[in-house]
Please model this.
Amino acid sequence: MPAAEMTVGRQGHYAGAASRIVAFAADIGASWGLYTLGVALLNAAIKLITGRSFTLTNHQGVAFIVLVVWEFFYFTYQWAVSGKTLGMAVFGLQVVTKEGGPIKPGQAVRRTIGLAVTLFLTVGIGFLGIVFQRERRALDDFIAGTAVVYDWDARAARLRWIARKEGPHPQGQQVGRAA
Amino acid sequence: MSNPIGSRVEQLAQSLAEHIVPLIVDAIDIDAILDKVDIDQIVSRVDVDKIVERVDVEKIVERVDIQKIIERVDINAIVDEIDIDALVEQTELGSIIARSTTGVLTEILDVIRSQGVGLDDFILRWGNRLIGRGRRLATWPDGPPLLVKPKVAAS
Model:
């Protein structure tokens, strides 16, 4: 069972580097998988309609533009709607404003652009703020005016652990705070 | 018609009583008298059941303002005193929670997320310790002001 300080009461706290990187990797995987599935469906649909074989990846320029648009849509839409992507939902993270409120669509757009800038223009150096900045904000967070927090119900998770570990109890035991 | 002699005597008697009674009372050692009285014996002779029977408890309860009492009780302080972990560990509540909320997916997510939190703390602590800012972490905010109460500065 994890220590209480690692679970209880962490909801709303700034999320750290490991959770954010793994969630981002999961998002890259999920978006890439959906892109590949979409391209395969598109190829099949064109072949079905025209009778001619079509492969998007043979048209490198178009494929690149479609990929960029898709990735932009994938992140922006999910952040704008719920403040979290698929990967972030799995790892219990949420994007909020730097004050802690829900983000606006404009911030979601700025954050997606900021993410690309941090990844490609700063070669990832912009992510160091997650470890060394007092509010654990990366460059994309500064560009969008956002922060990333833990969103999962850690207290309920701890109670589930205790419940699984202990199971039914012997009757008549007293319950109270330890001195 | 009033008797002037009778009225005079009455006044004299009253005046005497006013002077004498305090002197007598001062002279009496109440503690000594109480020491001689066996209170236990007196109490044992009192029939408490009979007194209780004559008291209309329902009438007294009706006069009690329960709402006022509840308002004066600090429920939050009572709840804070309850050790939720112990409650789950030692009662059927634990198995009820486990049965109602635990699925394989939930269990996997709980493990992954808590491991992530542990790793996050490790990286934050050691990353800042390496550049000599380990002590500053204690003053850093835990979360955005709308979600987490700001830390109180140590005096």
Summary: The first strand of chain A starts at residue 93 and ends at 97. Helices of chain A lie at 4-7, 17-50, 60-82, 86-90, 105-121, 129-132, 139-144, 154-166. The two ends of chain A are 22 Å apart (CA to CA).
